[in-house]
């Protein structure tokens, strides 16, 4: 279940969008015990100036992203677009499931939930 | 229209990326989830972690060891045993327990291997027994005794096998077979092995976050 995709309008700055991963929808619900799903989120939005320069609450802007956005504003070409809107901070989840030998397994996975997005 | 979930080589690559070396067959035999596994799962939930005590990555707090994969492996030979405590010439019965370790990946290193047993006796007023554990090789003869420990009636039995039956720095065997024997001592009654399982914690360093480098 995702937020509707946004276009390149003024309201479409790079930020975290909601994405709920349902294990039932991907067909894993028979062997995944818990959780049934999780809020994984995703990043979407434009990274042109000034959107590429996030406020003090956001992730630190890479110098490369600023100059990339500046270069793109000065000379927009198809080959070198604006910086990419990508995950800047992620967090882990744990998954409880049955393996093929019917053992109960608890596995810890890093980088499963997007907490913060940034222009990179 | 919804596209079907990836299958075949695409699914295998996807599961390999998630650190699983085989595609789940999808329809497990239903069995209750052991309480210890629920407890460990809830303990890892960031919403239930206590404020000010952040979860350490690649560490199983409740068991006090490094690790990112915990398995509860039931004894696969449980139903081949006689239901009651059979005695042979005055001795308590001996049992063979078998644990299927095929799901353990080659990159996983064990950090805890705990044998858990539940013994049931007809009379709880015994003085307890002594349990001995030996590794059972391909031939049916048990190897040298790995450990011997006192066992109290009515209490769960927990024996640490790491370093004894499970090597710390070697790859895991595909199957672990153990010979268990109960020694009566001064007690006159024997017990029945009602349940046997292995709680295995492993660490796959590839799934741990890399240390942050200073620029």
What does this structure look like?
The complex is a heterodimer of chains A (120) and B (215). Chain A has 120 residues and is mostly beta strands. Chain A has 1 helix and 7 strands; from the N terminus they run βββββαββ. Chain B is mainly β and 215 residues long. In chain B, the strands form 3 sheets. A 4-stranded antiparallel beta sheet of chain B has the order 3-10-5-8, with no helix packed on it. Chain B is elongated, with a radius of gyration of 21 Å. The mean pLDDT of chain B is 80. Classes of the chains: A mainly beta (120), B mainly beta (215). The interface between A and B is medium-sized, with 27 and 37 residues.
Rg from alpha-carbon coordinates of chain A: 18 Å
Helix content of chain A: 10-25%
Distance between the amino and carboxyl termini of chain A: 26 Å
Mean pLDDT value of chain B:
80
The pLDDT mean of chain A sits at: 84
* Number of helical segments with 4 or more residues of chain A: 1
Morphology call of chain A: elongated
- β-strand percent of chain A reads 35-45%
Strand element count of chain B: 10
Q: Cα distance, first to last residue of chain B?
A: 48 Å
| Strand order across the largest sheet of chain B | 3-10-5-8
Topology pattern of chain B, helix = H, strand = E? HHEEEEEEEEEE
Question: What is this structure's SSE topology?
Answer:
The complex is a heterodimer of chains A (120) and B (215).
Chain A: E1 15-17, E2 20-22, E3 32-34, E4 37-39, E5 42-44, H1 63-74, E6 85-98, E7 104-119
Antiparallel strand pairs in A: 1-5, 2-4, 3-6, 6-7
Chain B: H1 9-17, H2 35-44, E1 59-60, E2 65-66, E3 69-74, E4 94-100, E5 109-121, E6 129-136, E7 142-151, E8 157-160, E9 175-183, E10 191-203
Antiparallel strand pairs in B: 1-2, 3-10, 4-9, 5-8, 5-10, 6-7, 6-9
Which terms summarize this structure?
heterodimer, A: 120 residues, mainly beta, two-stranded antiparallel sheet, 7 strands, B: 215 residues, 4-stranded antiparallel sheet, 10 strands, 9% helix
